[in-house]
Amino acid sequence: MQIADYLSKKKIPIPSDYNKKKRGTKSLTYGLWQQSTVRFILSNEIYTGTVIQGKRKKVSFKSKKFIDLPEEDWIKVENMHEAIISKEDFEKVKKVIKSTKGSRVVQNDYLFKGLLRCHDCGGYIGIRSPDKNGNIYGRCQRYGRFGNFQVCSPHNFNYQVFEEQMLEVLRQVCKEYKNKKKLEEIAKQTKFKQSQEIDLKKQIDSFKQDIEKETRKLEVMYEDRLAGIISLEEYIKNANRIKEIVKGYEQSIKEFEQKLSGESNNEKEKIRLDDLVEEFLKLKKPSKEIIREFIEKIEIHSDKQVDIYFNFKPLQQVNDNLKKFICAKKKYEKKAV
Ligand SMILES: [Zn+2]
Asked: Distance (Å, rounded) from C-alpha 205 to C-alpha 207?
């Protein structure tokens, strides 16, 4: 990280910006260096003048997929070009990297991890390890990494308090959804929908009958033509007209059928949502999986306002009608077990 920041301060262009300069695209890290880039460069033997080939190979002649090969199978050719880093330095760095690998503590698996986004920069909200008082804080990751370079702002909040409040909001939304569903108004709406469905089916049937009628007309006309009752010109003119009419009916049938299948898809999604809501309200401690079914993402504003984006429209509507949810600024209180 120190090396990365040193390079950022010196305004050394990052590799992706350097490469893309010709194309004029902007990098996601505001042109600032990331640890991963430094690590990649430090562990790439090409800077010592060695060229490595055969790290990966195609699965088969036909396939486009590649598989990684073990290091002993790589083809290494030394002194292919002038070295920027000496072999000794490279080996020393390799040892340092190896010794720091895995020393970082694995983060806990938090319920809302991966769903939290910074409203202002669009980056992830990181959840940090507990501090000495057992408090866990969420913070904009881009600020955490690049705050020294005036990127974004902290968006700091107490994660434990947030999680409790968030679950409460979800419960409220689910309960409200269930209550709303019970209301007669919605019952009427579904009745209305059912009658709409019947209407659509009736319409489709009548279009089909119309097509039959027109086709019969065409047959009669053909016989008239054979019997010499009408001229060839007349026949062609009328036949074309009838074909156009039939085409119009067919188009309408297609549209109506699409409408019908759309309605039944909505119905299926509603049933899935009803099941999810029931399940969620039964659970004392919901799983990560069910929360991911409900929620697409959660955005945190710098003033701690929380925007929840649901995967289901009806829940979104219920949520938007409730009071805006704001992360409390209070401290988390440990409960006696
Ligand atoms: Zn941010």
From this structure: 5
- The residue whose two tokens read 């040892």 is 95
Task: Give domain status of residue 289, yes or no.
Answer: no
Rg (CA), the chain: 33
Tell me, in angstroms, the distance from the centre of ligand 1 to residue 143's CA: 6
- Decide if pLDDT at 230 tops 50: yes
Tell me if 278 is assigned to some domain: yes
Q: What is the pLDDT of residues 35-83, one digit of tens each?
A: 888 888 888 888 888 888 888 887 777 777 888 888 778 888 887 788 8
Amino acid at 307: D
Tell me how far the alpha carbon of residue 157 lies from the centroid of ligand 1, in angstroms: 13
pLDDT of 29 strictly over 60: yes
Domain range for 223 = 182-282
153 Cα: distance to centroid of ligand 1 (angstroms): 6
Domain count of the fold of the chain:
1
